[in-house]
Amino acid sequence: MAPAKSAALISGKELSEAIVREVGEEVASLKSKDIHPGLAVVLVGSDPASQVYVRNKRRTCDALGIRSFAFDLPENCTEKRLLTLVTKLNADPAVNGILVQVPLPKHINEQKVLNAIDPIKDVDGFHPMNVGKLLNGEPSFVPCTPAGCQEMLMRSGNDPAGKHVVVLGRSNIVGKPIAALLMQKGKGGDATVTVCHSRTQNLEAITKQADILIAAIGIPLFVKANMVKSGVVVIDVGINRIPDASKASGTRLVGDVDFDTVSKKAKAITPVPGGVGLMTIAMLMKNTVRAVKLQRRMKL
Ligand code: L34
């Protein structure tokens, strides 16, 4: 029997570092014109995972020379107080991008807060205006995680054009926008997209048809080897903490894909950690520079 092959690793670390370097050059060029990009990152509450992600975002800003404005509000912060902050940031010329980390505490209407962000500062691309523009094929800000997935495909030589992409998950922050992005006409798009979710029947029959499988369902190790065809390209968006007695922390991070078995069948696969999460941050930096240019009507 031939030895089991192993998939190529699509490294979010390497690719995100390359993107961050590119953005760094743009930031330097803006600064030479006395333009200083600024990003406001708002965190409500003390969810440990959100704290890690937000810290990584602020650190990357620092490394790049993007001014980061940190707003940490308590769990019991009122919706009104948050809306007042957003209004203030909308009006502040030093703030080019506004990001409100989700999920927000249950007592706050998330969509109401996202709708309050000025669309031209909406570096997450969550405002209905930007969601609509993406669907219309005139993207303004593409949400960071979907944009990161697309970059991983393109930069690893796995152009989705003409391929059958199966997306697992239909969230507003990943599933829906990534489907819109990859089915779009033109570079980085032109895929045939199928979106599956918790109510999909015969899921396996569909995932097995995928040339590219994007897992964003939030269930640890959900995708098993028997659900994919050999030669599939797998993008794992999931970040789940599962118990692991062998770790000092008592937990370890895994994706929505059972990496150990699926990687033996795949042509290429992204790791967790060190995959899509890092790309999300790199694309946020890119969107922040884009915000500066849009606001100043500069060439993109
Ligand atoms: N508004 N909320 C808003 N925008 C976003 O783009 C996000 N997202 C998701 C959650 N909420 C959001 C993020 O920032 C997920 N996400 C995110 C960002 C960074 C990382 C993971 C998810 C990340 O840094 N991941 C590292 C380390 C993970 C760890 O140690 O816990 C990784 O290697 O995957």
Can you tell me about this structure?
The chain has 300 residues and is an alpha/beta fold. The protein folds into 2 domains: 35-118, 3-Layer(aba) Sandwich (Rossmann fold); 143-276, Rossmann fold. Helices cover 39% and strands 16% of the residues. It has helices at 12-32, 48-64, 79-91, 110-116, 128-136, 144-155, 175-183, 203-207, 259-262, 276-295; strands spanning 8-9, 38-44, 67-73, 97-100, 164-168, 192-196, 212-215, 233-236, 240-243, 251-254, 268-269. The strands form 3 sheets. The chain has a 6-stranded parallel sheet with strand order 1-11-8-7-5-6. Helix 7 links the parallel strand 5 and strand 6 (192-196). The longest helix is centred in the first third of the chain and has 21 residues, at 12-32. The site of ligand L34 has 20 residues, from helix 2, strand 4, helix 6 and helix 10.
Helices, strands, pairings?
Elements: E1 8-9, H1 12-32, E2 38-44, H2 48-64, E3 67-73, H3 79-91, E4 97-100, H4 110-116, H5 128-136, H6 144-155, E5 164-168, H7 175-183, E6 192-196, H8 203-207, E7 212-215, E8 233-236, E9 240-243, E10 251-254, H9 259-262, E11 268-269, H10 276-295
Parallel strand pairs: 1-11, 2-3, 2-4, 5-6, 5-7, 7-8, 8-11
Antiparallel strand pairs: 9-10
Helix pairs in contact: 1-10, 2-10, 6-7, 6-10
The protein binds ligand L34.
